[in-house]
Amino acid sequence: MKSFTFTTTPSIICEPGAVRRIGDLCRRNRINRPLIITDQGILDNDLLAPALDALNKAHISYMTYADVVADPPEDIMLKALRQAQTYNTDGVIGFGGGSSMDTAKLVALMMGSGQSPAEIYGVDKASGPRLPLIQIPTTAGTGSEVTPIAIVTTGDTIKTAVLAPQLLPDVALLDPQLTLGLAPHISAATGIDAMVHAIEAFTSKGGKNPYSDMLAREALKLLAAAIRTAVHSGDDLGARRDMLLGACLAGQAFANAPVAAVHALAYPLGGTYHIPHGLSNALVLTHVMRFNAAADSAARQYAELAPIIMPDAATGAGGKPAAEHLIDHLQALIAELGLPTTLAAVDIQQQDLPMLAEQALLQQRLLVNNPREVSYEDALGIYRAAYN
Questions:
Q1: Which domains occur in the chain, in start order?
Q2: Tens of pLDDT, residues 234-278
Q3: What is d(CA 37, CA 107) in angstroms, rounded to the nearest whole number?
Q4: How far apart are CA 55 and CA 39, in angstroms?
């Protein structure tokens, strides 16, 4: 066994209705003037109301910043930072999907360290502390509540990462009641996103270890068993709980055994075409897996995951290798959940595929974790396979 280090969020709460404990959690973490970072959809659907009610009952003053958008551009993050500075906040609450939680991480870090965005972009560039940080996910996908990673869009299309241990929050609060109102297509896309995190962590060359493997397997067990119910019967609290916990476990796994080519090829789809991140991953997942399965190590690892993801199916049905059967199963699952299955179906232009491949090759921090080396020609071939 190789030596390894495993780190994660120090406090994780998984409980229906747990959002009503936010006042007490703020007090415990020395937050008296929180800035809540969220998006307009959260406000429109009244999801924030229980948290605000709890803060009011605890006599905690707060301010809300609700201008976060998907794939948040740098100026959105800077506006949130200016509001935090104006309010003189002493702690940050991220409330929503990955974009809101990533923005919350960066604001908490820059408020605490005094660094500018340019000084923190990249790996381990953060040099100071952050403000106290509580993360409350309302989608079961990104796992951002337990990762030391935040993504921001710089320029027109480039997704830029900040990786720093300071980004791990103090508390991840998982309240499945907050996910009951998710639309089926969002439940499907975010659920597949979480499954991708677990699959890529399990096959990662960059930190795979016994803890990450254990978490990835348990995440896939929960997600595969619950995703259909969560999509088709969205008011099933048990399925929502299992999806939220599965996404969190997958987040812990890939925070330590980083994701790879699926994400590298998905990022340009979000940056250029503004396709939601989970759907971007779903569009390229099986095509990257087929590419990877040509490597014996990846084929063996996929075969290990096959009975976890499809426990009631014969993993070698029809004489197919288990890895190939798993890939076919995932391809069918994505279609069954009602997600688009080709790049053409989401209006990506075929003439843009070379440009997308060039952008994917810029994501070397991800590609180095892939079971197979990915060249420009490989990336272009994967996009062409995914096109129609």
A1: 11-178 (3.40.50.1970), 182-387 (1.20.1090.10)
A2: 999 999 999 999 999 999 999 999 999 999 999 999 989 999 999
A3: 9
A4: 19
